[in-house]
Amino acid sequence: MSWVDQLCRRDYPNRKTYRYEAPWTVYAMNWSVRADQPFRLALGSFVEEYGNKVQLMSLASDSVDTAGDFVCSYTLQHPYPVTKIMWMPDPQGIHPDLLATSGDYLRVWRFGAATLDLEPRLECLLNHNKNPRFCFPLTSFDWNNVDPYILGTSSSDTTCTIWALETRQVLGRVSGHGQAHFSYSNKQVYDIAFGGGRDVFASVGADGSLRRFDLRRLDSSSIVYQHPQRLPLLRLAWNKQDLNYLATLAMDSKEVVVVDLRRPGSPMALLKGHGACVNGLAWAPHFASHICTVSDDCQALIWDIQQTPNAAVKYPTLAYKAKGEINNVQWAASQTDWIAICYKNFLELLRV
Fold this sequence. Notes:
With 352 residues, the protein is mostly beta strands. Helices cover 0% and strands 47% of the residues. The chain has a single domain, classed as YVTN repeat-like/Quinoprotein amine dehydrogenase (Methylamine Dehydrogenase, Chain H, 7 Propeller).
């Protein structure tokens, strides 16, 4: 069943999708969570050279003279490709309007009080590298939903680092493979996600394991899931509506693994509907059992994991076919009936 026939917006009943064509390949992207900034997104370029960009986008209004669906409010200069973008988790807008990007370092940008027309400035640059001779890239990061002044990064140097944004100090650093010290092994950490309160986070990486950590007890960790063939696990998403569920995907895999923390070790569900390797996943911000996955098969699929628990799930609830291999997906937290996908140099918004 395709959801393309259901795509529309109440303000524009004849529209089914919104599309933006960027001047470069798009990879990283994220929705703003602020209620006063609906349909605001940040996009990062993927250019294999020095001199990348981050564009700040919003839907064009009737009063704006534009040839497309979006308006680019500002372009940030970013030296290396952005591995992840996130806005500060602040739906009510009570904190400063901040955007973070990861690449060679973790950069945090500040915006004006109520508009993107004011030029953003670099608030801080957080350097995770302990060895001054090397700059190990950050593979990903996550922003703590309980305490928005805490961020965690994962790195190709095998570590996860937890930062206090107000003091710019490191709260803790662990090897993503279970050691509470800095380690230069050959097992990179590819993703990190907070869940279960202020202090609990998880990581996945090249050793094929999904591990859970507690910032209060960094001398130990627990393995939640281990890939049977020890394939590297590339992405991790923690279900914020039901913290018992995490989802992950392995390198070059057509499947998505859903894990129930109450029964660790074995998958709670295997999502098997893609015809090529899966690149991204995003839990629904308003339904605990819904998750969207995207793949090189050009499909975005929405699954209901409660339909067939403890089994391989082959048929999604909804499906959308794009015009290229989809490399990322983000589900809007403030506009929960909208999903953003990107492929090639295109961004598309889809209504579910």
